[in-house]
Design a protein that fits this description.
Helix content: 40-55%
Bound molecules: zinc ion
Mean pLDDT: 90
Number of domains: 1
Shape: flat
Strand content: 5-15%
Radius of gyration: 15 Å
Distance between the termini: 41 Å
Strand order of the largest sheet: 1-2
Amino acid sequence: MMERLFTCISCQRDVVDYPNRNGRDRAIEPLCKYCEGSYGERLPQSGAFMDRRIAGQISALANVLHTRAMSIEWSGRYGKA
Ligand SMILES: [Zn+2]
């Protein structure tokens, strides 16, 4: 049974998935799989252990924060787009 797991902090979409999914297809809080893939750098290769996945998600989180900070700075300078 699929259920709402968490809300992605980047795109604010609800992540709906099987709660007991295992392995590389599992969504890890607080980023959805899409944001993790599009903001992350040096994503883990297939067969990598979970710590590489976590490291990739941390780099994605850093990029999300950086993007958000740039957006706040821009709107403070030039107003809301
Ligand atoms: Zn997301």
